[in-house]
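User: Reviewer 2 asked us to show a designed sequence for the structure in our supplementary figure. I'm pasting the structure tokens here. Could you produce the per-position amino acids so we can include them in the response letter?
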């Protein structure tokens, strides 16, 4: 709410009206609320007024009344919601704890679902939802009507009538589906996000590893993987080259595979490269980096690669 905004709120019995906005907006809604209040108070006055019977003279001949006691037919009461089954009934707090909810409108929808599913109430008002919040000992939204309106806009609740100037709502099939599947949808969204992040990270890593030319690796003065016969030596040469010339102190087996495949056109599988590095101990040692197992040359490994380099240089001469 900005500095020039106002807040208008009024409550009378079950009637509650709350809005925020500029002065003209508040004035408009003040008039609307006043109209509702007037109707509500008029209804209360009518209920409180004494019942008065007036008799009009009749032109018809008097009919002798039957002095036998008459029993009036009882009026039909509204159908009560069925009692919740002891099997299906769940503790409201346990029910909420099992849902990954974050927003006020989500909790509001969950309360509506609980009333429908476990208390067998097909319809409800803002007041009954607010009461359910209190029964659950959960913080009531600052504006319960706004939360309900959000659920209506999303198609999870719908208006189904009016009772004593209070709107009646029902949960829709979409609303039931949302609450029943919110765990699955949350997990799916999370997994999708993780997969997307993982794919981007792998793409960035590959770009980082291949951002160098063969000339920058100084192959004429270093062990050249293409001149080595064993996969173990070729993998070690990548660790050596990237450490000495490019300051990569350690690489994963996947990193080594990418470099061998993309820079030197070797056709080994990632698994073969991993096995080769594992067999190269104690020339390499393992360390964990960003959740992955990386390999770095030990002093023994560095000495081994220096020796291979000297042999290659001697062969050139």
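Assistant: Here is a per-position design you can include in the supplement:
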């Amino acid at each position: 709410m900005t500095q020039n905004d106002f807040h208008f709120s009024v409550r009378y019995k079950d009637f509650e009206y709350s809005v925020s906005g500029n002065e003209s907006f508040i004035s408009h809604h003040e008039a609307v609320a006043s109209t509702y209040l007037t109707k509500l108070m008029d209804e209360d006055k009518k209920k409180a007024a004494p019942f008065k019977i007036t008799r009009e003279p009749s032109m018809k001949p008097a009919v002798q009344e039957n002095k036998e006691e008459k029993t009036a037919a009882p009026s039909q009461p509204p159908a009560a919601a069925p009692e919740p089954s002891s099997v299906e009934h769940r503790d409201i707090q346990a029910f909420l704890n099992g849902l990954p909810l974050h927003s006020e409108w989500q909790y509001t929808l969950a309360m509506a679902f609980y009333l429908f599913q476990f208390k067998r109430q097909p319809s409800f008002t803002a007041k009954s939802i607010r009461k359910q919040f209190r029964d659950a000992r959960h913080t009531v939204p600052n504006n319960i009507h706004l939360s309900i309106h959000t659920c209506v806009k999303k198609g999870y609740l719908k208006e189904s009538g009016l009772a004593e100037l209070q709107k009646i709502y029902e949960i829709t099939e979409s609303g039931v589906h949302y609450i029943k599947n919110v765990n699955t949808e949350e997990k799916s969204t999370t997994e999708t996000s993780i997969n997307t992040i993982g794919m981007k990270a792998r793409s960035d890593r590959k770009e980082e590893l291949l951002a160098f030319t063969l000339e920058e690796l100084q192959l004429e003065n270093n062990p050249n993987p293409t001149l080595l016969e064993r996969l173990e030596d070729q993998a070690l040469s990548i660790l050596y080259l990237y450490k000495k010339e490019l300051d990569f102190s350690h690489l994963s087996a996947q990193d080594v595979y990418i470099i061998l495949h993309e820079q030197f056109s070797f056709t080994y599988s990632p698994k073969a490269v991993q096995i080769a590095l594992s067999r190269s101990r104690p020339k390499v040692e393992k360390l964990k980096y960003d959740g992955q197992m990386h390999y770095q040359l030990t002093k023994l490994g560095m000495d081994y690669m220096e020796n291979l380099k000297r042999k290659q240089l001697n062969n050139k001469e």
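For the response letter, you might also mention the following. Strands lie at 6-12, 15-21, 157-163, 166-171, 251-252, 284-289, 292-297. The CA atoms of residues 46 and 64 lie 34 Å apart.
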